[in-house]
Amino acid sequence: MQFFRFFAVVTRSSTPHTRAVSTHHRRAFGTSRTAKMADITSKPYPAKAHAKRVVEYIRSKHPKASGVLYVEGRMTKLLEDSDEPEPFRQRRNFFYMTGCPLADCYFIHDMDTSKSTLFIPPIDPDSVVWSGLPISLEEASKTYDVDEVKYSTEVNPTLAHLGAAKPKNTAFAIFEQVSDQITFLEFDDKNFSILKEAIEECRVVKDDWEIATMQKANTISSKAHVDVMKKVKHAKNERELEAELLKTCIAEGARNQAYQSIVASGRAAATLHYVHNNAPMEGKLNLLLDAGCEVDCYASDITRTFPINGKFSPESRAIYDTVLKMQLECCKILKDGVLWEDVHTLAHKVAIDGLLELGILKGDKDEILKARTSVAFFPHGLGHYLGMDTHDTGGHPNYADKDPMFRYLRIRGKLPKGSVVTVEPGIYFCSFIIEPFLKDPAHSKYIVKEVLDKYWDVGGVRIEDNVVITEAGYVNLTKNCPKDPDELEKIIASS
């Protein structure tokens, strides 16, 4: 799922990966690739390893750093004007440090002793009547990869003890994620900037547990996509297909979606962030399905485009083949250290070749690339990091870039080994985007409107896979989701 903004400028930490941290990250993508996924995910979430990695990052910036890392989970909050709680999803940075999905929790990590302490809510007798007994201290100690579990009433006394134990201690916390009742009075220094940066940078490279969990999410999502393909020919409305997708994900144990699904039929597929999912489908050519579940807070993100009646129209097949070639050619050059801007540029070059061959574009391909005319048909970035967020941290986008071909890239710079990225090229026929290009002589001289007019009903074609970057290439987590056009037609036609 690759969304972009025309007007908003998003800012994030621009701190690049340091060489020391990059080296540590490279070790994180371990050698146990042959281990079974179930064996890996049956083990506790690797919270201590994550805490160690975060400490290493902080000390790469502040070599003498000493003290504690303090992180809060998300607190229970009621819906406005209601006694019902808001849907709960754990704070990503807290989950990264603990693997704990519970509400109203706290975490302290002693940087010098490497001791991790998780604080969970004490038993509230009134809530037991409605919700049952919560997890006990003993159960939590066995479940989570921490050294000690205490009740949340012990957070401030523990902080006071740790702060007074050693002079020149620093409390590292995340700005605006510290509850009012928490105090760091015994600490000589407080740092509210580096911890968020450290966690977000460390999250870029995944360890085996994280990759295995994302593989599980992708396997479930792939099955859900295929089930939608089998139903698409008989569906009357997009909402029926969204229901089919959710049905499969829930039945397979993934109740939560990583993001709101895009179920776009016909010309609606040219709207990148189409979320209505309620339009009738009669007489339309294709369906673009962008959807993925999450498992244990880790996301999948798959897009497939396929013919509603089981047979691509000639125009749809021509665009599909071009987009598929864009993706396959880009994947060929993926590996540790590849510059993402180079991969994105290659996608545009392949798109231009395809559109020239179809007669939608005319002229010299190098001049078209230089003019950025291809942005009219491929306006978004090639992909993004994937993890606990669909658009995961650490990409360092630059939405102020004046080059329209790179402005909406969610990743800038080199891809490290062990990172998980989406590769999602697309070609779209969106009048809102293309019309200004047709009115601009600098671009219109390259566009053949008479040929273009034959393709509006194609809407848009996007193909998206999730891949793990390796030293020499990549591993496709989405390989179970069909994308060969002949296979797609066969699945739909035989349903």
TrEMBL record:
EC number: 3.4.11.9
GO molecular function: manganese ion binding; metalloaminopeptidase activity
Assigned keywords, A-Z: Aminopeptidase, Hydrolase, Manganese, Metal-binding, Metalloprotease, Protease
InterPro entries: Aminopep_P_N, Creatin/AminoP/Spt16_N, Creatinase/aminopeptidase-like, Pept_M24, X-Pro_dipept-like
Enzyme class: hydrolase
Boundaries of every Aminopeptidase P N-terminal domain copy: 45-179
Entry cofactors: Mn(2+)
Leader sequence segment: none
GO terms for biological process, alphabetical: proteolysis
The keyword Cytoplasm appears for this protein: no
Function noted in UniProt: Catalyzes the removal of a penultimate prolyl residue from the N-termini of peptides.
Family statement: Belongs to the peptidase M24B family.
Protein name: Xaa-Pro aminopeptidase
Organism: Diplogelasinospora grovesii
